[in-house]
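Researcher: Quick test of sequence recovery. Tokens follow.
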């Protein structure tokens, strides 16, 4: 029987400990494992860079909730991205990237991989003809983020999977903003789902981590080889915290969405707000696609304000319950100015963000308190 999302999040890869019956996988704070004679590994464990039982539990749970063949857990989202890109690309290859994405992902392409010999072209992913035209014989991947950070643009995963596969490339979807509860890219044809598990999967702003989940076991195996060979693995305590967060992802996401919808209503009616960016709005250009491929529309809300950059920064500074800080996806609400904070590394690039933009990660506090704080900050 196919189990539901919450059942998988709580049980997949997390059978009670065979020795003690502990219902939660223990933190295996260990680097190496006793062998029963040379090469006689117990349950396959040899050295914790290669595999560690706490990390295995997280990796199996992530694979289950994304509906993938293989899950791999990394030290950060960017470590996962780097490992993926240096597995599917070699120097001389090319990647199509979005013209709106997390600034650190753009920095990885523009400052690290370019020097390593991988070229890239930013393309508006909503324009399928433009994406098709950007695919070259040496294109190894189309990189998708949907919804995007910070403009909440939406890309059609199923259509882009066809474009990628027609061109002999893999389709990679950074699923951080939606989380596997709201969107399952592999079921729509993507080859790899990428996560900064630092965000909704971890959910409590207490751990940095990343993940890759593949549709095919084959690609999973190649990535696992590189994960071990390159070494950017999640440590056991980080894996354990992430796994604890994952168990409540479904209930948290529903509350994030409930609260975000109320915040959107408030912003829409506020005279100082020029534009609200949220895929749940019928006027959002990606609304129909989002409605098709997402369960709900998420907890991230961006908006543009009258008065330009200074006004946007002021709002960020005035908020109290919305904590001024980078990152997102935790139970507590955060506010930030992408131009000066998370996306400063995209300044002057095709991925530069508007200066009058404010980004909210709407948490799961009592919604009336959030609305009061935001009204106060907006002035
Ligand atoms: C959409 C997205 N992808 C990837 C990352 C990178 O993840 P990490 O900070 O865990 O390295 C982030 C971080 O903010 C992100 O927002």
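Model:
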């Amino acid at each position: 029987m196919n189990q539901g999302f919450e059942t998988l999040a709580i049980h997949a890869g997390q059978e009670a400990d065979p020795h003690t019956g502990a219902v939660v996988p223990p933190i295996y704070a260990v680097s190496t494992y006793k062998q029963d004679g040379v090469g006689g590994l117990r349950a396959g464990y040899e050295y914790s860079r290669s595999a560690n039982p706490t990390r295995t539990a997280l990796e199996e749970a992530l694979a289950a909730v994304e509906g993938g063949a293989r899950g791999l857990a990394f030290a950060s989202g960017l470590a996962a991205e780097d490992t993926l890109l240096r597995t599917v690309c070699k120097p001389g290859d090319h990647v199509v990237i979005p013209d709106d994405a997390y600034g650190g992902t753009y920095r990885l392409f523009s400052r690290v991989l370019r020097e390593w010999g991988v070229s890239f072209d930013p393309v508006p992913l909503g324009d399928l003809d433009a994406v098709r035209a950007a695919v070259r014989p040496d294109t190894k991947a189309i990189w998708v983020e949907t919804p995007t950070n910070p403009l909440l643009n939406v890309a059609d995963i199923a259509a882009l999977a066809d474009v990628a596969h027609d061109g002999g490339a893999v389709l990679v979807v950074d699923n951080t903003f939606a989380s596997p509860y709201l969107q399952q890219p592999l079921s729509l044809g993507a080859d790899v789902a990428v996560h900064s598990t630092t965000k909704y999967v971890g959910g409590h702003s207490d751990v940095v981590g990343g993940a890759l989940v593949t549709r095919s076991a084959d690609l999973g195996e190649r990535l696992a080889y590189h994960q071990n060979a390159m070494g950017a693995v999640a440590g056991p305590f980080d894996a354990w915290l992430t796994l604890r967060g994952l168990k409540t992802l479904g209930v948290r996401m529903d509350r994030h969405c409930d609260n975000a919808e109320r915040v959107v209503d408030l912003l829409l009616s506020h005279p100082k707000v020029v534009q609200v960016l949220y895929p749940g709005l019928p006027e959002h250009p990606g609304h129909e696609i989002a409605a098709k491929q997402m369960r709900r529309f998420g907890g991230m809300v961006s908006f543009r304000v009258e008065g330009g950059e200074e006004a946007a920064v002021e709002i960020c500074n005035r908020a109290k319950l919305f904590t001024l800080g980078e990152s997102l996806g935790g139970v507590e609400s955060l506010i930030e100015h992408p131009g000066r904070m998370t996306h400063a590394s995209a300044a002057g690039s095709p991925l530069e963000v508007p200066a009058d933009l404010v980004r909210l990660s709407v948490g799961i506090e009592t919604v009336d308190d959030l609305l009061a704080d935001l009204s106060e900050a907006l002035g």
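The chain has a mean pLDDT of 97.
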